[in-house]
Inverse folding.
């Protein structure tokens, strides 16, 4: 019997997925929802929010998230015997490295202040500081946090990162666990959030965290909107404790038009575009995982349901 893959996410990207599957794996047809064909032939589901389908497809074997994050999934509604695999592919990494590098450089080179000066037609140079004097700290040392730090290190920034379990990354001061959190914050001038959204990270970026950072620190938020307490950030900015913020993820999304984040002059907002799955490399990643699954090997990106990421 044919074993097919069902794709249920952005239909334009779905067409690219179908074309690449047809080229690289002609024996594994990819169907784009809602054209599901025979439900019993579907063994693999690739989706952003797959719950309803995961419950109804009788022979489903694996659920793949189209994104790196899995917080959008209601894991309780995905049958326990189905492995859930998040997207690990180089396109997402490249996009995130570009976005965070640009944000950190913009902060380090005072571009928020120069934008305000430009509005006031002020021509006034600020002192150039060496990158080594700017201490960048990344929350989350996974696929994305590690890649971002490896690039920032090349500019000479003083790099550190924080994770749950101890990590070692060349040229990066690594902190682990709650006990090391405050020391990590105290040495961080630019805080980058690249944590998954879990019960432990929801609301993490709050007034206590902002108060622990050195006065005048900045924030780059690219994790998930509910990790940030926006009112606390705005308050910390009003008091000068936080100087500037680059925010790609908000709660809710889209950010309501009357939300005060829009009008804070040192906040830059983008609509959750820091990175995105790239269709060609994502198909390659899924095909490799199909091969592994059929060979009885562990797939790359299988999540730990109890940890939530
Ligand atoms: P990974 O799962 O590879 O890494 C997660 C990291 O966070 C790990 O180092 C983990 O620690 C750490 N972590 C998790 N929980 C805690 C905690 N409670 N305390 C301390 N550290 C913790 O994730 P990725 O790097 O692939 O992605 C990170 C997130 O980025 C995604 O979950 C998603 O929310 C976001 N994202 C945003 C995008 C955007 O466009 N804005 C695009 C793609 C992803 P440990 O190493 O010990 O497990
Ligand atoms: C992701 C995202 O998780 O785009 O991949 O946020």
């Amino acid at each position: 019997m044919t074993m097919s893959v069902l794709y249920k996410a952005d239909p334009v990207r779905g067409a690219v997925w179908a074309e690449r599957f047809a080229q690289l794996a002609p024996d594994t047809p990819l169907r784009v929802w809602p054209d599901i064909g025979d439900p019993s032939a579907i063994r693999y589901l690739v989706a952003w929010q797959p719950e309803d389908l995961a419950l109804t497809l009788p022979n489903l074997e694996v659920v793949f998230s189209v994104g790196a994050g899995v917080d959008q999934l209601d894991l309780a509604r995905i049958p326990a015997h189905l492995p859930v695999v998040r997207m690990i592919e180089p396109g997402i990494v490249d996009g995130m490295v570009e976005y965070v590098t640009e944000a950190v450089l913009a902060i380090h080179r005072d571009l928020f202040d120069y934008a305000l000066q430009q509005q006031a037609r002020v021509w006034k140079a600020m002192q150039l500081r060496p990158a080594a004097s700017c201490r960048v700290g990344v929350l989350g040392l996974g696929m994305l946090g590690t890649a971002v730090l490896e690039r920032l290190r090349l500019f000479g920034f003083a790099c550190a990162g924080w994770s749950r379990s101890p990590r070692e990354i060349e040229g990066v001061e690594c902190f682990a666990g709650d006990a090391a959190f405050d020391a990590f914050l105290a040495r961080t001038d630019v805080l980058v959030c690249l944590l998954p959204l879990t019960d432990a990270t929801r609301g993490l970026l709050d007034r206590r965290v902002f108060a622990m950072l050195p006065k005048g620190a900045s924030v780059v938020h690219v994790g998930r909107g509910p990790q940030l307490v926006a009112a606390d950030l705005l308050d910390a900015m009003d008091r000068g404790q936080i100087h500037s913020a680059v925010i790609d993820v908000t709660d809710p999304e889209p950010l309501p038009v009357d939300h005060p984040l829009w009008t804070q002059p040192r906040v830059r907002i983008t609509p959750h575009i820091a990175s995105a799955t790239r269709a060609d490399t994502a198909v390659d990643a899924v095909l490799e995982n199909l091969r592994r699954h059929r060979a009885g090997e562990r797939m790359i990106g299988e999540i730990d349901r109890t940890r939530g990421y």
